[in-house]
Design brief:
Layout lengths: L16 H55 L1
Length: 72
């Protein structure tokens, strides 16, 4: 406390360089992990596209077959 009755604000402690390096490394690792998860999801989606197309073709063929059977 000063002689005028005010409190003295202590200066903020500076982070050491190993701490800053560790925080930076953790940030880079988090970004890389997010990119890896996004790449995995895109890969799974690209694998499922042909499966969905084949399922649609089978459903269309089954529908056309049923319509053909009903006409007979």
């Amino acid at each position: 406390m000063t002689t005028q009755g005010e409190f003295v604000v202590p200066p903020a402690p500076r982070a050491s360089w190993p701490l800053r390096l560790g925080v930076g490394a953790a940030l880079v690792a988090a970004i890389a992990g997010g990119l890896a998860v996004a790449a995995l999801f895109l890969w799974v989606a690209s694998i499922l596209i042909p499966v969905a197309l084949v399922a649609g073709l089978v459903a269309y063929a089954a529908f056309r077959f049923q319509m053909w059977r009903l006409r007979r």
